[in-house]
Every structure is written in structure tokens, then in C-alpha cells.
Design brief:
Elements: E1 19-20, H1 22-34, E2 37-44, E3 50-58, H2 63-68, E4 75-85, E5 91-101, H3 107-123, E6 130-133, H4 141-148
Parallel strand pairs: 1-3, 5-6
Antiparallel strand pairs: 2-3, 2-4, 4-5
């Protein structure tokens, strides 16, 4: 498949001009509608033109497995399936967007990820909350659950 055929329209470019691939949307929809994955980790390609899927976590994979896949000294985007408690006491699952920007990452990748984030977020419909982490200590499951709406 030609690279241009796999892309969404240029309207989904962030201010950096980076575009998300069609695969990002397809895999996200499988996660959202079929609960196929516990997480998706996205990265910007080495040529700095596209956002692609780096890895996915099979349903039931642990939070520790997810955090271990976020690279030290670099940036990533992720969507995480989080179990939350509702006000009525019921348990449900919510998807939350995570922006990982390690404090020790060089400035240029941090700026590129920050300016490209909206291109991906606009495409991933149904995600209302975002959690930002700059060090592994920020990745606290209980805090992420609260941000996703847990009581």
C-alpha cells in the first residue's frame, strides 16, 4: 500500500505537520468497540512525518507491563483502558489519553510531541481525559483512574 493511501486527510495534521496513519484509527476503534487491547502506545516516526503504533497490550495485560514499555529519555502517546468506580458504585472501563514526555528527553522531541498531540487526539474520538507524565513516578494507576473519572 502506498504511504499516502494509508494516511488520513491533511486536516488531521498537528501544528507540526505530523499526520497519524490510518492504522492508528483502525486499531483504536478495535480497542474502543471490541475491548481488544488494554493499551496502545504511539510514536512519531524517525522521519518526523507520521504518528504510528509502536506496540499494543493484549486485553488483561498489567499496568506494570504498560509502564515498562514507555521509553526513558523519550516521548510517546498512549491510550490506556482503565477500570473505574462510578458514583453509583458500579465498575466500568474508560479510555484515557496519556502523554509521556520524560524529563530527561531532549528538547526537540518534547516540542515535536507537544505540537503533534492534537493531530492524534482529534482522530481518537470518545476520549475526554488526558493524563500527562514526565517521569515514571507520575505513572500511578490510582491517579490515572481518578483522572479518568473514578470516585
Amino acid at each position: 500500500m502506498a504511504a499516502s493511501a494509508a494516511l488520513l486527510s491533511p486536516l488531521n495534521c498537528g501544528s507540526s505537520g505530523v499526520q497519524a496513519t490510518e492504522e492508528c484509527l483502525t486499531v483504536f476503534e478495535q480497542m474502543k468497540l471490541r475491548s481488544q487491547y488494554s493499551y496502545i502506545i504511539f510514536k512519531i516516526t524517525d522521519d518526523k512525518k507520521y504518528i504510528e503504533i509502536e506496540t499494543t497490550g493484549e486485553k488483561g495485560e498489567s499496568f506494570e507491563s504498560f509502564t515498562s514499555k514507555l521509553p526513558e529519555g523519550d516521548c510517546r502517546y498512549a491510550v490506556l483502558d482503565v477500570e473505574i468506580q462510578t458514583k453509583s458504585g458500579a465498575t466500568t472501563n474508560k479510555l484515557i489519553f496519556i502523554a509521556w514526555s520524560d524529563d530527561n528527553a531532549p528538547v526537540k522531541p518534547k516540542m515535536l510531541y507537544a505540537s503533534s498531540k492534537d493531530a492524534l487526539k482529534k482522530m481518537l474520538t470518545g476520549i475526554n481525559e488526558e493524563f500527562q507524565a514526565t517521569e515514571k513516578g507520575d505513572l500511578n494507576y490510582a491517579e490515572i483512574q481518578k483522572k479518568a473519572g473514578s470516585v
